[in-house]
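Appendix B. Raw example, untouched.
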Amino acid sequence: MVRALVLQKDPEFSAAVREVDDAFLPEGDVTVAVEYSTLNYKDGLAITNKSPVVRSWPMVAGIDGSGTVLESSSPHWKQGDAFVLNGFGVGETHKGCLTGKSRLKSPWLVRRPAAFSAKQAMAIGTAGYTAMLCVLALERHGVRAGDGEVLVTGATGGVGSVAVALLAKLGHKVVAATGKAAEVDYLRSLGAASVIDRSELAAPGKPLQKERWTAVVDAVGSHTLANACAQTRYGGAVAACGLAQGMDFPATVAPFILRGIALLGVDSVMAPMALREQAWTRLARDLDPQLLESMTTEIPLEQAIEAAHDLMAGKVRGRIVVKTGG
């Protein structure tokens, strides 16, 4: 028996940490001990039932996990191998990793870089891995350090915090946008050169505004994304990966056809394995472990439901790591 954060709908929604046995585990060719999981925005949506994230019931929450392999019928994985899992519908259509034990499909697993412990891998989690995917997308577009200011929206969140740290480490001049005035020192400690209030971006704005950003990492969507595009310099790029403000995009084509900017969609859930491996390799190289520690809070599994509600209420800074095993 192991503990798991189980979501049910029969017919009313409920979320509870309870004991489950091996018969409750999903199908898969690799059985794993999950040492740590984490809470991402999508986990918060699922656990609080704020959005129809879950599409199969009952569900074990947790789109991320890291630990070691217990049993494997895959030739690519053996007992004792260290893994990281991000996405692939886990925690949505396949029972997830907010539990001490799970059964997963081997093509979903990434070998955990030796630079990271299971806890550190989950301090990064989907949020940090997505931030790295955004950086890679901007680099493929040709964005380089020294080109100009790079805006990061939702900067105190999981994606934003890691994005600020990564971009600053790579030599970019990072401007962090946040609604939390008390977190300016935190953002500067991650490497932000300056901090602006999110209200400058959150309201409806003109289709084309004064050029400022050479690149943007946006985890917010809605008017914030529209304004970020309207303020991006000629030939610049915007990596869009989230919807904290909303799923809408109330913009015009003006920045695209008059300034030639690029809007780069970044998906973490179904990203191909080669890109995942590249992202984790770069995270091991470019993310300062001390900064990772400074943005991370560890909680036991029993506190995950309360923490998910805090996350959705905007009360969480940085990353939450959930100790699931041991």
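End of appendix B.
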